[in-house]
From TrEMBL:
Protein species of origin: Streptomyces canus
Stretches for region Disordered: 1-43, 121-144
Name by which UniProt lists this protein: WXG100 family type VII secretion target
Gly residues bias spans: 24-34
Amino acid sequence: MSTPFDGPHQGGSTQTRLNSVPAEGGGGGGGGGTNVDTQRLDQAANALVELRGDTENVDNGADDDCLSASRGLNKHSAGGMAEAGSWATAGSLVTMDVRWGSQVLNLKSLLQDISDKLHTTSGHYTSTEQEEQARQRSISTPFG
């Protein structure tokens, strides 16, 4: 399964390259600089937004199923209304549903926060790159 975080695969092998060390070996020397693929950052951020929406859909289904099961258990209990909670299991289902909902809210918040930061980072890199290109174009040299 491929994700926006996966790097390109070449010949089935994976190579790690530090900025100061050439991939083919040899001494340091740097000179490369940092290259950021803002499109991949945006793709990852958008994937997190989609995952956040899917998480909400799953949570809604779990809520419906837990409450339905709780009502079903209580419906067959003696005396009282179905929502009275006379079965301990029914009450535990509701408690677990509340805990689940709390965890889902936390997960959705984290996904949104990470997505926002990826979009912001992408925007900063794009802006900085454009500013640097404008600065480079504005430099005049005696060589033309």
